[in-house]
Amino acid sequence: MKSDGMIRLISALFLFAFIVLTAPVFAAETLPLQKMIDEAEKGDVITPPPGIYKGPIFIDKPITLDGLGKVTIDAGGEGSVIVLETDGATIRNMTLLNSGDQHNDIDSGVQVRGNNNVIKDNVIDDCLFGVDLQQSNNNIVRRNKIGSKKFHLGVRGDAVRLWYSTRNRITDNVIHGSRDFVVWYSANNEIKNNHISGGRYGLHFMYAKYNLVEGNTIEGNSVGVFLMYSDDVVISNNRIVRALGATGMGIGMKESSNVDIVDNEILYAATGIYLDVSPFQPDTTNRIYRNTIAFNNIGVMFLNDWTGNEIKDNRFENNISQVSVAAFASAKRNLWDANYWDDYEGFDRDQDNVGDFPYDVRVFADRIWMDIPHAAYFKGSPVLTTLDFLERLAPFTEPILMLRDAKPKMSSAFSTTPTKDPRREELRGVGEDFDPFGLKERLKNRN
Fold first, then answer.
1. Helix (H) or strand (E) holding 19
2. What are the structural domain ranges in the chain?
3. Comparing 70 with 427, which gets the higher pLDDT?
4. How many CB atoms lie within 10 A of CB 439?
């Protein structure tokens, strides 16, 4: 009996020790973080003693909150970890954990409701949304590590969310496992040098004009970058890799005009570039220059027979299909010029790096899965391969001309050297009054 009692006592002691050691150790309640903030003056720098502090935290004055890499704020699963309702504040070197899980409340690591704030060098983890900016301008979000809650992908929150926000700079962040990075109704923002992985949409723009996307690595997402009704966007020098799945795509556009897609690498995607009624505005073009489009199922995919795209000096290599149209139609009404095609079968007898005859793509057996998309499952099978060979050998009908590049390059080196795009300077300051749904007027009337 004594031995049974001793065993129970030892077990209880081990259980107690486990609970004590694994429970979060909060900093002394004699000086809670919210009280430090409330007692601070404008412009103060607050460096709390190392420890774990309870959130949510509310900041309504321009102060600097610096954790020096030793301070954690845990919201306890309720609300946002930090709500920032001021201009000119800085949050840096903090670890922000355990927001609530309510999408209606946009429970976040940091909710920003102000201008000219800086959120940098923080770790934001187990937070439904990462950094949420609503009607907030001229903010900087830099060098943060951001992850969402471990929910099913579709019900996680967004790593960064811009809503009616302009002239913000989102740079050098590492984002993994969040749902999307969204830019909605927001103009003239810079999104540069971020690493975005393990999500659904790497970047998703909706009614968002005049934005710059440059130097990002976007890998292992369902979609790399998608523009919906978003004009005058520059997508430059990004590396977009492994956008896989049945609907995976590197860069997609729906009814978006005057877009520059230049100097990107788009690799290992189901579809490299997808174009849905783009450009949409009359008398506009989309410029697709100097991209490497390689190792994709389809290099460039059009929803239908559309026009207005200039596809120049790109490198098409090792794609199963270089170009396709979802309907049985052609893409020849776009400008195809001086691209490198690894399946070009011509010669260059005058050694000018231009093929002696045009690069033509004609549709033979491919029309089967263009007309019946489910038949694409058998693409590459012996049956379709044989049928395609017979069609090319002795066509039963006149094959449709998919595209013609009159001056195909013989070398995969780009013909033009990337230079600073003058449109990036033109777009600075443009769109500051961008208000597609008249929100500013409605808010003014409400006040």
1. helix 2-22
2. 34-199, 206-364+399-424
3. 70
4. 13
